[in-house]
Inverse folding.
């Protein structure tokens, strides 16, 4: 009898980014490298700038703790489409996503992609799905009730969208390449690729990072994994903090 594969762990950190503009915490800004600080300075909106700094400082703090380096000593390179890659990761892969007041950081031992989106209104969800999704997925969005509950149109759309984007990020591709991926179904599921541009497959699980948001995490390959859900909070002194909240085991691959 074949022994089933042992699920590996993927850490997914939820990072609250704040709801009101304010000064960028100096201790967090000091963790960023020159390129990240330049990107932050180019953001004209103070709230977006503060959220950018917080998200990237959280990424550095979490990764630094994992690889045994100070956050400011973590070095990233970027793939052709901007995906961050650790210059000294020793087999560790990372992904970062942020939307309005939430960021997600994912760490895994195979290529990983994570995405978070704030729920849109029902009419916007329908318009975007009609323009971007395969016909069967558009119909599933259009048929959903207009409410904002877990089975509402906005949630159905966001669930499909974040699955697609998580797969694209795991592959290091561009979002436009992944809009045609078929991701409909009960999660967790295995998503198959679309030729050389997005080879796949990917194992995908849905996330519920906060009320009003949807998320997904995808790992390269069909092997099962477990999500270790954690929350990152900077303590009062501006440093980085962490708190583990749960570990959830995913079912075997669904094809």
């Amino acid at each position: 009898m074949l022994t089933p594969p042992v699920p590996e762990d993927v850490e997914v950190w939820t990072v609250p980014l704040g709801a009101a503009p304010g000064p960028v915490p100096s201790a967090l800004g000091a963790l960023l490298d020159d390129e990240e600080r330049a990107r932050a300075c180019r953001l004209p909106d103070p709230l977006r700038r503060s959220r950018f700094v917080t998200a990237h400082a959280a990424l550095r703090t979490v990764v630094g703790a994992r690889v045994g380096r100070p956050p400011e000593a973590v070095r990233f390179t970027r793939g052709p489409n901007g995906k961050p890659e650790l210059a000294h990761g020793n087999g560790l892969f990372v992904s970062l996503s942020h939307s309005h007041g939430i960021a997600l950081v994912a760490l895994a031992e195979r290529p990983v992609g994570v995405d978070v989106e704030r729920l849109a209104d029902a009419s916007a969800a329908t318009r975007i799905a009609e323009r971007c999704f395969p016909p069967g997925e558009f119909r599933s969005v259009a048929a959903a009730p207009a409410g904002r509950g877990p089975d509402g149109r906005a949630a159905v759309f966001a669930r499909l969208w974040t699955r697609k984007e998580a797969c694209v990020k795991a592959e290091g591709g561009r979002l436009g390449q992944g809009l045609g991926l078929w991701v409909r179904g009960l999660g967790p599921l295995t998503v198959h690729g679309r030729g050389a541009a997005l080879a796949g497959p990917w194992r995908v699980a849905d996330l519920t990072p906060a009320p009003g948001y949807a998320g997904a995490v995808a790992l390269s390959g069909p092997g099962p994994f477990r999500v270790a859900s954690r929350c990152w909070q900077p303590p009062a002194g501006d440093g980085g903090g962490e708190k583990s909240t749960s570990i959830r085991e995913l079912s075997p691959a669904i094809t």
Notes: The chain has a mean pLDDT of 86. The two ends are 21 Å apart (CA to CA). Helices lie at 26-29, 34-41, 46-67, 122-132, 135-143, 153-171, 175-178. The chain has seven helices and eleven strands.
